[in-house]
Amino acid sequence: MRHDRLRFCAGAAVLVLLMIFTLNTINAKAESKLQISAKAAIVYNGSTGEVLFEKNADEPLPMASTTKIMSALIVLEQEDLDERFTVDSEAVNTEGSSMGLREGDEVSLRDLACGMLLPSGNDAANAAAVRVAGSIENFVGMMNERAEKLGLESTHFVTPSGLDDYTDDHYSTARDMAVLAAEAMENQDFRDICGLQRVKLEFGCPPYERWLINTNKLLKNHGITGIKTGFTDKARRCLVSSCMREGCELICVTLNDPDDWKDHMALFDYGFSHVEQVKLSPKQHDIRLMTADGRQVLCKVPDMVITMTRDGASRSESRVYLPDFIYAPVNNGDKVGEIVYYLDGRELGRREITAAENISAPKTSNGVFIVILRNIRQFTGL
């Protein structure tokens, strides 16, 4: 009988090992079939920080006009976006792609953001830089400061447009550009503009209506929500795009990619095949909070639904934040605290912890006790 058990356990162990080997082989084959032309690439889940695919993602490379993601983000964070002003005549006198600015034209910062993100206007980037920071050099300083705050350790800007400089000091990585793109898409103005296939604006001298067309051809595909194209002789074709499927948005970056339209759609298919909607739950559901007069309040601690990888879900953590006590009365549904879900130290989201029952006000006999507690709390700052 003992030998039979041993044989059964050994057989089960072999079966588990075979299953693991088979799954790893399937995953390896799936990734090996994903042949892309890019020198560097990444697929990134901006909501969780998970990397679903990468190729040379940390190699510093020129990124051409995808630079304008940073420029447009800084511009759209300014006040008075719709206030009109006259463009700097030297700023608009630049080479490369243009939104059609001329000396003496009247525009707004919002117009210039559209000019950067749709037709990839170098004139728009320069004009916006002078308006916001007083000079192109000062604006580039703002770009690099923002990159440092975002933790983009392998990124350095020299121009607001992305035009090649002659010192090889204008560069980024696929990973850094994905993080930047995720940050930019948190800005609603940026999101709204970069997802437009075309836009009608009124600017000029005097202002008149005209259409700007987006260079991002991926926007014709279902689910594509942005973001920015780029090309220079040195950087070659660069593309940062975002795609939304079933409530989950992924970001794809390719640098130096001769077949970027095709590669991005293949990368999105691959990325979305590795995520699913999961429910994150707290370790402890039965949580009670004390009232100042010694009673207990049953709390409702919510789950969180998010789209991510299974591995990420298994590594997620939660932290409960509650006060030491609460004053009655308490009504069912009142917020009493928060639960925050994390993945590798990154906040995934927070939900309100609420009271799950009604607790009446303390009896009059306890009134003096409550007043004393309140006075102690005010005096000590607790």
Automatic annotation (TrEMBL):
Keywords: Carboxypeptidase, Cell shape, Cell wall biogenesis/degradation, Hydrolase, Peptidoglycan synthesis, Protease, Signal. The active site is at 65 (acyl-ester intermediate), 68 (proton acceptor), 120. It holds the Pfam family Peptidase_S11. InterPro entries: Beta-lactam/transpept-like, Peniciliin-bd_prot_C_sf, Peptidase_S11, Peptidase_S11_C, Peptidase_S11_C_sf, Peptidase_S11_N. Substrate binds at residue 228. It catalyses: Preferential cleavage: (Ac)2-L-Lys-D-Ala-|-D-Ala. Also transpeptidation of peptidyl-alanyl moieties that are N-acyl substituents of D-alanine. One of its GO terms (biological process) is proteolysis. GO terms for molecular function: serine-type D-Ala-D-Ala carboxypeptidase activity. Removes C-terminal D-alanyl residues from sugar-peptide cell wall precursors. Belongs to the peptidase S11 family. This is serine-type D-Ala-D-Ala carboxypeptidase. It comes from Ruminococcus albus (strain ATCC 27210 / DSM 20455 / JCM 14654 / NCDO 2250 / 7).
